[in-house]
Amino acid sequence: MYLPKVRQIVGGKIPGTLKDPETGLKFLGKFVRDYKGNFFKGDKITSQSKPLEFIPFTEEQAKRSNSDFYSDFVTPSVRDYEKGTFTRYFVKDGRTGKVVEVNQDKYTAQKKENKLYRRVLKIQWYITGSP
Questions:
Q1: What is the DSSP letter of 13?
Q2: How many percent of the chain have pLDDT more than 70?
Q3: d(CA 62, CA 94)
Q4: Closest CA to 72 of 113, 97, 107, 96
Q5: Per-residue pLDDT reduced to its tens digit, 81-125
Q6: What is the edge-to-edge ordering of all strands in the sheet holding 16-19?
Q7: How far apart are CA 16 and CA 62, in angstroms?
């Protein structure tokens, strides 16, 4: 089967996962997609190309895959209101300039990863009274 290169898309990000029908495992190697949306192993389509099964993401997975860098909805607790302060955690991606608010666990994880393009910030937020 011959398919011109303009009808083939090699690699890239896809809204789902690829499964190798021969092994039944998730496929992580090189792949190529034809103009009909079929996926094949390798970096070009030939008559010996092995097909792959495409499994689309669920709606929640698709939301997360579009941006693995997203904000969490964090609210102060009753105890925080009694104290008058609330600790907020932020992470900035230096490549895109995007800033998101995260919970304490994600803040700690990002700090441990120590990526050069990610900056973390922890601040005390006054929520009642004067500072």
A1: -
A2: 85
A3: 24
A4: 107
A5: 888 899 999 999 888 888 999 989 989 999 998 889 899 999 999
A6: 8-10, 31-34, 39-41, 51-56, 16-19
A7: 8
